[in-house]
Amino acid sequence: MQQTYLNEVAVGDITSPQYSSLITNPASQPIISSGASYQFNATWTDNNAVSTVILNFNGTNYTTSKIGNVYSEVFTNFGVGNYNYYWWANDTAGNANTTGNLNYVINKALPSLSVSLSPSSNVLYPIQTNCNGEWVQFTDNMYII
Questions:
Q1: 102-128 pLDDT, tens per residue?
Q2: Rounded to whole angstroms, how far apart are CA atoms 90 and 71?
Q3: What's the CA gap between 130 and 140, in Å, rounded?
C-alpha cells in the first residue's frame, strides 16, 4: 500500500504595490508664476492594500493625501529650477515599490517688450527719433542703433 502525503505551504503576499497615472498639474516646464500651485498625483494599487505612500520631493518626504487610489501633494511658490522627486509606496505585507527618479522643471518668465517709434517711417541720422518702451522682468541690456 502506497501512502501519499500532502504538505500545504502558506505563501504570503509577495506582490508590491503598482503605480500608474503619474500626473503633474501644470505639466513640467511651466513659466514661473507668483503664488501658483503645483499638484503631483500618482495612482497606487495593490492586490491586498496599500499601506503608505510618500512623495520624496528634493530630498524631503511628504505624506500625501488620498482620494480613492489617487495620492497627491500640492506645493506653492516654487522658484525657477529643476526639482527631483520620486514616489514610494508599501503594502500591508511590507512589500515596497518606487517610481524611480523623476524631474520637474519650472522655467523663467520670458521678458515682454513693447516699443513704439515716432516717426514710424525710416529716418536717417542725425534726425531725432523718439522711442518709448515698457518692459517687464527685462534683464538684458537694450541697445538702439
A1: 999 998 877 766 666 555 666 566 666
A2: 13
A3: 21
Q: Are 104 and 23 in contact (CB under 8 A)?
A: no
What digits encode the pLDDT tens for the residues 46-97?
999 999 999 999 999 999 999 999 999 999 988 899 999 999 999 999 999 9
Torsion (CA) 125, 119, 142, 126 in degrees, nearest 10: 10
Supply the DSSP string of 116-133, one letter for each residue: EEES-S---TTS--EEEE
As for how many domains the chain has, the answer is: 1
* Cell numbers that stand for 27 in this block: 505639466
- What local confidence, expressed as pLDDT, does residue 129 receive? 60
CA–CA dist 74, 105 (Å, integer)? 15
The three grid cell numbers given for residue 22, joined into one nine-digit string = 503619474
Q: How many beta carbons lie within 10 A of that of residue 38, not counting itself?
A: 20
- What CATH number did the domain enclosing 58 receive? 2.60.40.2450
Q: What is the pTM of this model?
A: 0.69
* Domain that includes residue 73, residue range: 18-106
Tell which residue, 62, 83, 89, 85, has the closest CA to residue 73: 62
